[in-house]
Amino acid sequence: MRNNYFTRPIPSDILSLYLIQFSYYLSGVYLELYMDKRRKDSTLMLLHHFVTLALMYFSYMGRYLKHGCIIFFLNDISDAILETGKICLYINHRGGIQRPFGEFCCNAIFFFFTISWFYFRIYLYCVRLLHATNWCVYLLRDHWLPRMYLFFNGLLWTLFVMQLIWSYYILSMCIRLVTGKDKMLEDIREEEIEQSNGPFKNGISTAKKEK
Questions:
Q1: In whole angstroms, what is the distance from residue 39 CA to residue 190 CA?
Q2: What are the tens digits of pLDDT across the range 126-147?
Q3: What stretches of 93-136 show up as alpha helix (H) in DSSP?
Q4: This prediction's pTM
Q5: What are the CA-CA distances from residue 80 to residues 28, 76, 86 (Å)?
């Protein structure tokens, strides 16, 4: 192991990236707990934020900075497309009016989001990142810390399993759109919550209680 591996300074751009990402996911924990409405995957989303925060912290402390930056890259591309689609969907449904061109844009963005999700978060994440952090690190023994190796890769695999679960939701939405079961793009994560407990606003049911 190199003598200055843990003491050499971290580049300012990488440090800034870590601070921004850590702040973003930390705020996401608060939003998920107190502001966002309940969905079928709310617990999964909260767990995802905690796992991501742990990955950022331990990759920073263990100086696995390259791996951390790769995770940011793989996650943020599909996230950017997803948020763009959400904005388009909200604008399209503004005032209770559905606009055909808006529906086309939403479906097109969802198509590109699906492609980016499975390419970056499933294929590249598994074939490139997990392969590099598991098998390649084991072979090279570069900066070998057995306990850190097992813990860090355990978090990475946990994140991958959660992404597989979300992949199921994405594929379900694609199938429902293609088969015509849904005439427009809808978030299937909200269906059971709304049917069983009524509509939600900021995580609180707005349904009137029966007397």
A1: 5
A2: 988 888 887 766 656 655 566 7
A3: 100-116, 131
A4: 0.78
A5: 15, 6, 10
